[in-house]
Amino acid sequence: MKLAPIFLFLLFIVSACDSKKVQPDNATEVDSLAVQLVNSATERYGEYIFGRIESTDSLEVSLNELDKAIEIEPTQIDFYSHKATILLALGREKQAIQILESALTINPDFAEIITRLGFINEKIGEMEIAQKWYQRALVAYDKRIEENRFVVNSKANKAFLLLFTENEETAKKAYSKLKQEYPDNNEIDYLEFVFEDFDKEEFLSELYK
After folding, report:
1. Domain assignment present for 43
2. What is the per-residue pLDDT across 161-199, written as a single tens digit (0 to 9) for each?
3. Could you tell me what percentage of the chain is helix, strand and coil, using 3-state DSSP and rounding each to the nearest 5?
4. Per-residue pLDDT at 30
5. CA angle 186-191-196, nearest 5°?
6. Residue 55 forms part of a structural domain
7. Distance between CA atoms of 86 and 161, rounded to whole angstroms?
8. Long-range contacts of 121-125 (CB under 8 A, 24+ apart)
9. Out of 12, 28, 111, 138, which residue is the most buried by the measure of CB atoms under 10 Å away?
């Protein structure tokens, strides 16, 4: 069972919404060029992931496009996230960590970026560093909840992180509480089998394939 895409889907719902904060109010021709570059880069990455392109040279082209997009729009956090994803596909975890840390200089409270840094560090065996990122992510989610932004998703992400900061039993209890609090929420229902049949090693191994 490939669990990683399920949780990343939830993460990126919030990421996409939150990243819109840095979009300029009046889009310019330069902005359009940056978007075109990012679309080209991510479409090529998708072709690679689905096996329609085999050479990793295509990912190098995507990285170059993302670098140009970031140069045009250096405050677009999602551009950094896309670049990190491709770096991870190439096995360049350290570089991915660096680019995500750069993104946090734009928005230090971007919970999904912080969470990703925890996952990557745990994947490469940096457990102590990973735990620091997880704790920082929990604080960022709490802040978002206090500000009444993306409350349900933030609570769900917090419950999921308990699988990494606490244990499976604690995470399941947190999820059960969420189900009681939001009985008609489809996103919460969608996560049920993730909590019921979670394999951390599988999650981390599938995370960036």
Report:
1. no
2. 999 999 999 999 999 999 999 999 988 988 888 888 888
3. 75, 0, 25
4. 42
5. 140
6. no
7. 24
8. 121/97, 122/164, 122/204, 123/93, 123/204, 123/205, 123/207, 124/93
9. 111
